[in-house]
Amino acid sequence: MGGMDLGRWYFEKLKRKLGDGNQTKFWDHAWVGGEPLKVSFPRLYHLSNNREATVGESGRWEGGSWVWELKWRRDIREREREAVSSLTSIIANFCPSAGIKDGWEWTEAADGKYTTKSAYDVIKSRRNENTHHTADNWRVAAVWKTPAPHKSAVTAWRLLRNRLLTCDNLRKRGVLLREEDQVCQQCNDQEETGSHLFTTCAKAQEIWDEIQKWCGINMARPASTAMHWEMFSHCGKNKKVRRLLQMIWIGCVWMLWKKRNERIFEGKESVVGDFIQEIKARTWGWNRTFGVVDIDMNFVSWSSNDLISRLV
Ligand SMILES: [Zn+2]
Question: Among 144, 223, 234, 258, which is most buried by a count of CB atoms within 10 Å?
Fold first, then answer.
């Protein structure tokens, strides 16, 4: 998982809060990495022999040290090994503390609550450790400043850092894929890379054309995802509108990734019209919750074409 480095810094902020693990569900609760493990590792969740296990039941003490024991319904296959080793290295940093009740907090924020802003500060303070730059840091950093939900910001962030597990990245990590599995499942034509899947693929372009019509922006076709992010944001005339466009962009990227996974893992196909409706509804909800622009705008007004022309 591209989340490995995320996992490392999350755990550093969380580890002291780990109790005996008896009230925390291993797969269901967000006890590591900011989201439930069943969300980060859906395939492994399905493979688990005990999806209901608590953290405390997922290992045992052996001569004073904690040993994780995850049981699977069958043998782990070659293509699942990457995920297993990511999961293992994330949880290897945790061990339950006997006699202490579970009660985790995000220690970075003053009130103990996890916030995107505090996560961003951690990333910022550790940026020098990152060696692979695909877009300038400050540009990518804007991802954390939009009101998009954390999970979608994480997807966009990974994408912009070229850390999403698209086929090309899987191959770079030594995961062997059959030739037919490397082809973009949207168009069945080209190799699946981040820039292809989200930006240059004909199917992705079809979606972006609709999104642009909705937002009321006009721009040239970008050649890469980093360029796309940049160009799309800059169609906003002021900071507020730019932030709104960034939120929409993140929402789209997150949904494209979600649909891509549903297509591959569940064989579900989605229709462009439904996709557009869903993204309009979701982003309307996000805006109502986190308020970038006028939150009293009704859904009809929000979802009509030329959205940004109605914003001051
Ligand atoms: Zn394609």
Answer: 144
